[in-house]
Amino acid sequence: MQNVVANPALRIACSSCNLRELCLPVDLDGKEMQRLDALTSIKRTFRRGEYLYRSGENFRALYAIRTGFFKTQVLHEDGREQVTGFQMPGEIIGLDAISTDAHTCDAVALEDSEICELPFDRLEELSRELPSLQRHLHKIMSREIVRDHGIMMLLGSMRAEERLAAFLLNLSQRFSARGYSPNSFHLRMTRQEIGSYLGLKLETVSRTFSHFQEHGLLNVRVREVEIMDMLGLRRFVGNN
Amino acid sequence: MQNVVANPALRIACSSCNLRELCLPVDLDGKEMQRLDALTSIKRTFRRGEYLYRSGENFRALYAIRTGFFKTQVLHEDGREQVTGFQMPGEIIGLDAISTDAHTCDAVALEDSEICELPFDRLEELSRELPSLQRHLHKIMSREIVRDHGIMMLLGSMRAEERLAAFLLNLSQRFSARGYSPNSFHLRMTRQEIGSYLGLKLETVSRTFSHFQEHGLLNVRVREVEIMDMLGLRRFVGNN
DNA sequence: AAATGCGTTTGATATAGGTCAAAAACCATG
DNA sequence: CATGGTTTTTGACCTATATCAAACGCATTT
Question: Which among A196, B41, B60, B95 could bridge A83 via Cys, Cβ 3.0 to 4.6 Å?
């Protein structure tokens, strides 16, 4: 199962990582940066479908995604599952586990991926000494809370079309921030996973994609999305 | 509007606060505790309907609720609002504002309330020196993330009856943790606010209360709830 | 005590999205 | 490049919840 490889070839330091501005954009001098580099030295790779962690496992570290794509999901006792997010390079996951020292959700690779491990006790230690790192850690956690509130808004008061439009715009914006096209991208997740995330059934997701296509807002061929009318999509979500 | 009163009579220190075990259960010696007391010395009172903060306002402090009851809500540009939580004594709000140095939601008193102000820069400063405070602050933020995931599960994959049952059980558990009856309590919020929180219309909330009553699970007379069959309610949510 | 007003309950009806089912497209593998 | 399994699409029909509307209860004001 956890076919995990600690690959020394992947020993890329924060200081020379091209995701630094997204992931840990902390203002540190050379010596301080060395200490951060030391902390984040463990990299691991995951194949599609592998679990980075599972609900219930002991909490030791946060994880920064270097390449690839993950989903996180919470499980209900009766077997229902709710996707709580899709994560891409530069994003940090595992924050939920701090509260109880155990992971409260699963993280699954949706494609072959690489992560940096950030042992949490050492991160706390270092952030006690480096205020700008401390502040950044707090911002990351707070940002996750804000993100969650946005999803509550989406799930609690939007219609299917608004939800899917908001989802696509969010993906577009995040791909764009990583230097990829905002208009054309590949979906790493199934209709069912999108549906779980958006509180919809997979058939509804599929139909809504078709509606958008009929209205000329986008072209979709299974996992390949091309947004034709960004403003039209935005109008759906209210941020026209 | 912000008819705020800084009341010196309310200068209750953390060290002697009876909510300490809920709010900031940090293992500190006498001298350290004094420093925490100094930090949390500002108390304020709010009348029902008053705003503790509004979306967009500058972020300066977190707030610990001493007495009373609040709701937090996010606003959508088109006027829709989504209640993101109901907070009771011992709980800390304002965490969402750290990410952007501005509040991203409103906090409104649902009854006359008192809060302790925790200036965030001083809290960060102190938590750099007191690892157990630092750890606790992280746990509070993480707990909020876990809570939000639970709401996503609720909004994304539960039916109306399950949502309301989960909501009532959650309130019950929190009242109980504060020394009040888990079986009988007063709702501080309207049907409409419950509905917003649960992603339902107020009529659905009202009807679902009636169903529960018909099935002998609880008695409800407007805002007064008496749970008759706790296990019956639990069975709805799957945690039977 | 009557009047006003908000919040709640209940009923009748409408509809967005769910469910079930079948076909089509896609993908991994031998 | 045939095969079997998964994912996606589309259609027909159904249901949980929304919508609209009216009455009611309770608190506050006059």
Answer: A196
- Cβ–Cβ below 8 Å for B157 and A199: yes
B143 sits in which H/E element: helix B131-157
**B:99-138 residues touching chain A, CB 8 A cutoff:** 99-100, 104-105, 124, 127-129, 131, 134-135, 138
Instruction: Pull the structure tokens for residue B181.
Output: 């009856």
Contacts for A131 with CB less than 8 Å, ≥ 6 apart: B124, B128
User: How far apart are the C-alpha atoms of A169 and A233, rounded to whole Å?
Assistant: 8
- Which residue bears the tokens 């205020």? A131
The Cα–Cα gap between B153 and A148 comes to 12
Distance of CA A56 to the CA centre of its chain: 20
- The answer to whether some atom of strand D lies closer than 7 Å to the beta carbon of B204 is yes
Q: Model confidence over B54-102: pLDDT tens digits?
A: 999 999 999 999 999 999 999 998 889 999 999 999 999 999 999 999 9
Residue-wise pLDDT tens digits, B115-169: 999 999 999 999 999 999 999 999 999 999 999 999 999 999 999 999 999 999 9
Residues paired with residue A92 on neighbouring β-strands, in sequence order: A64
Closest residue by Cα to the C1' atom of nucleotide D18? B201
Q: How far apart, in whole angstroms, are the C-alpha atoms of residue B203 and residue B220?
A: 15
Contact (CB, 8 A) for A182 and A227: yes
Chain C positions with an atom below 7 A of a protein C-beta are: 7-12, 16-21, 25-27
Q: Which residue in the set B95, B153, B155 is minimally distant from A142, CB to CB?
A: B95
Residues 6+ apart with CB under 8 A from A127: A133, A134, A137, B128, B134
The total number of residues shown for chain B amounts to 240
Q: What is the pTM of this model?
A: 0.93
In sequence order, what DSSP letters do the residues of B179-221 get, joined into one string? TS-SSEEE--S-HHHHHHHHT--HHHHHHHHHHHHHTTSEEEE
Closest by CA to A189, choosing from A165, A168, A163, is A168
- d(Cα A173, Cα B83) in Å, to the nearest integer? 26
